[in-house]
Amino acid sequence: MEIWNASSDGFSFVISYESRDGLGFHGPPGYVASWRSLSQNTDAIRVAGSPFKAFAEAEEACKAMLGYLTKKLDGE
Questions:
Q1: Contacts of 76 (CB under 8 A, 6+ apart)
Q2: DSSP 8-state assignment for residue 47
Q3: What's the 3-state SS for 17-30?
Q4: Is 64 helix (H, G, I), strand (E, B) or coil?
Q5: Cβ distance 33 to 62 under 8 Å?
Q6: From CA 15, how far away is CA 33, in angstroms rounded?
């Protein structure tokens, strides 16, 4: 199982690789991105578009989601 984790501006992001074979998650194959607030005890929310074919696509989706979330917090 491959998992990447990062946090920024009060949010945690995780990208995991899901496949139908081997250990770990067994959903549609690809990179699944999710996020959650670090200040609230909430479940992770899947980033729209998951699963992605490439890690770079999942990473860009996380960056876009962070941009959206921080703008929302700033009241824009």
A1: none
A2: P
A3: EECCCCCCCCCCCE
A4: helix
A5: yes
A6: 4
Provide the β-strand partners of residue 35: 13, 45
What integer pLDDT is reported at residue 76 of this predicted model?
62
Summarised one tens digit per residue, pLDDT across range 18-51 is: 877 766 556 678 999 999 999 988 899 999 999 9
How many angstroms separate the Cα of 44 from the Cα of each of 12, 54, 75? 9, 21, 23
- Which two three-digit tokens encode residue 26? 């067994």
Residues 16, 2 contacting (CB under 8 angstroms): yes
**In this structure, are residues 66 and 74 in contact, taking their beta carbons and an 8 Å threshold?**
no
Find the helix or strand (DSSP H, E) in which 16 lies.
strand 11-18
Cβ atoms 28, 51 nearer than 8 A = yes
Q: Tell me how far the alpha carbon of residue 24 is from its chain's centroid.
A: 16
Look at residue 1 and tell me whether its pLDDT is greater than 70.
Answer: no
